[in-house]
Input
Amino acid sequence: MVLRDRRATRWLPPRVRGETGARFVARVLAETRRGDGAPFVIRPLGATEVVGQIRLFHCSPLERNADVGYWIRRSSWGNGFATEALSLACRYGFRSMALARIQAKVVVGNDASRRVLEKVGFQLEGTERRSAVLARGRGDVWSFGLLRGELRTS
Output
């Protein structure tokens, strides 16, 4: 289970790191029923095994924006799954949810996630100082944004 893998979850918020898989799924489904997001599993084409998850959350119909978050099982890192899933989730957000903006926050130092965001077209908009709670204390967070029309397709 990904949520038990400390290397795979080291960049996730403490709330997520502390959850069991069942509790994470229950929370995400409850948020989705309230209209606060669109969750997806990440699964290679033709496979039955799930390698990660991605979701749009904190959706604001009035402002037409949402946050995006994702994680990939460590054994599947480096295969392009996060980049492809992010592109598809953003396409869904812009087309099906009529979003104007999608944003992401990444703990400074998570260079792999930063590369994924930049490949899809996200722009670094700033650094939030000491806004993340990490196992080793507080850390800085990069804020990224993607506007409708900026999504790079492969």
